[in-house]
Every structure is written in structure tokens, then in C-alpha cells.
């Protein structure tokens, strides 16, 4: 009896990437001071006016935070654009023309200062290809009790419609929780739904988020 030849095809995977920002300690204090200054000048809690009802007990800037001319802001933008282009190149190198030059551009960016009881409902980010969250100050967020974690939802809509031993590889939760760790950046594709679960703590939870597009030359 001849054993059939079987080819495995890993279709429709969802890559997520985590990196420690090398200059976090150098940038942190100046960025936090700048964010709190901007927060004090906000006209309303959610200055972006985007999905206001999906956000509770947090401050959100307008969507141009990384366009600022503060040296630490400019350096952060440079670093995250380099990080995103490295990631985009890794997953797309076989699809791009040979010898092409790729560039990542932050097109939207904002901060969140989340206070006790704050959260952000499930959502995704349109009009971009890659998104990121930089944990500037995670506060008292912890994975153990799911306090202030970012939750990413399985994009395979019907993956849980039936379960038996043959579907064990799919996982049984339908979501993946990421523990905020100071100085880390999470990069993910824009279609991936995610949320910030309710945060409880006396210290603020502060993140900087951004959306990127990729250009080829």
C-alpha cells in the first residue's frame, strides 16, 4: 500500500509581533510629561471624536500625536516606522518585486490615558495595513486577573461552531490576551479586532497607538 504524499498549507494565518523598544527608558519621562501636558489642554475626554461611546474613563488625543516636533516624539515615530517596515518586509518579502524599497508611514497616532474603571470596547482600525500599541506606562495592569489587558479576537468567525478532538488545534477561547509590559510594542494587522479590558488601579495606564501604511519604490 502506497502512503499518499501530503502537503501542509498554512492558510489565512494572523501574525502578531512583540518587540521591546530599545530606547524606552530614554523616552519614557519626556513622553509622559508631554502627554499629561496635552491631556490638560484637551477640550473633551475623547478629542479624536472617534467611537466616543466605546470608550469609558480614558483620555484620547487627536489622531496626530506622533506628528509633533518634540524630539522624543520624533524619535518614537522613527523607531516605530522602522519596526513596522521590518515586520512588513518579513511577511511580504516573497510578494514584493525584487530590489524594491519599502517604507512605513504613520498616518494616525494617539495616546490613551486610562484611569480606574476605564476600558475600550472591541474594534478594528480601517484605512491602514499595520497597527501598533506601545505600552509607555502599564500602570497596575496584570494578566492574572485580566486587569487592563488588550484582548485580540480570533478572526476565524466560525472557528468555534463545532468542537471535537479534530478541532483541538484551533484553540478553545476565541481570543488572545496580551499583558501590558512597560516598553513593549505590539504590532498587528489592521483587520484584527481587539479591545482594552476594564482597568482598575490608582496609577494611570498610558499607551501610544498608531496606524501605518506601506509604500514601495
Cα-based radius of gyration, to the nearest Å: 19 Å
**Beta-strand share of residues:** 25-35%
> How is the CATH topology of the domain at 58-92 and 100-154 and 171-203 named?
Jelly Rolls
CATH class of the domain at 58-92 and 100-154 and 171-203: Mainly Beta
SS class? alpha+beta
Show unreliable segments.
none
How far apart, in Å, are the first and last alpha carbons? 53 Å
For the sheet with most strands, the description reads: 9 strands, antiparallel
- The CATH homologous superfamily of the domain at 58-92 and 100-154 and 171-203 is termed q2cbj1_9rhob like domain
Residue-averaged pLDDT = 94
Number of DSSP strands? 9
Q: How many distinct helices?
A: 2
How would you sum up this structure, described in words?
This protein is of the alpha+beta class. Helices cover 18% and strands 33% of the residues. The protein has a domain at 58-92 and 100-154 and 171-203: q2cbj1_9rhob like domain (Jelly Rolls). The chain has 2 helices and 9 strands; from the N terminus they run βαβαβββββββ. Strands 1, 2, 3, 4, 5, 6, 7, 8 and 9 form a 9-stranded antiparallel sheet that branches. The radius of gyration is 19 Å and the shape is globular. The mean pLDDT is 94. This is 2OG-Fe(II) oxygenase.
Amino acid at each position: 500500500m502506497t502512503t499518499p504524499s501530503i502537503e501542509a498549507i498554512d492558510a489565512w494565518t494572523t501574525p502578531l509581533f512583540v518587540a521591546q523598544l530599545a530606547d524606552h527608558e530614554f523616552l519614557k519621562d519626556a513622553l509622559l510629561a508631554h502627554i499629561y501636558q496635552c491631556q490638560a489642554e484637551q477640550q473633551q475626554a475623547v478629542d479624536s471624536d472617534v467611537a466616543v461611546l466605546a470608550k469609558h474613563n480614558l483620555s484620547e488625543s487627536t489622531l496626530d500625536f506622533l506628528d509633533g516636533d518634540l524630539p522624543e516624539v520624533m524619535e518614537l515615530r522613527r523607531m516605530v516606522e522602522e519596526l513596522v517596515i521590518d515586520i512588513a518586509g518579513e511577511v511580504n518579502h516573497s510578494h514584493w518585486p525584487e530590489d524594491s524599497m519599502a517604507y512605513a508611514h504613520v498616518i494616525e497616532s494617539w495616546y490613551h490615558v486610562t484611569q480606574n474603571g476605564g476600558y475600550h470596547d472591541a474594534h478594528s482600525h480601517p484605512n491602514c495595513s499595520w497597527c501598533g500599541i506601545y505600552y509607555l506606562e502599564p500602570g497596575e495592569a496584570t494578566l492574572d486577573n485580566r486587569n487592563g489587558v488588550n484582548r485580540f479576537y480570533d478572526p476565524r468567525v466560525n472557528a468555534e461552531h463545532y468542537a471535537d478532538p479534530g478541532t483541538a488545534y484551533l484553540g478553545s477561547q476565541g481570543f488572545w490576551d496580551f499583558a501590558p509590559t512597560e516598553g513593549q510594542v505590539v504590532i498587528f494587522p489592521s483587520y484584527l479586532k481587539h479591545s482594552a479590558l476594564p482597568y482598575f488601579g490608582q496609577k494611570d495606564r498610558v499607551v501610544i497607538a498608531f496606524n501605518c501604511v506601506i509604500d514601495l519604490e
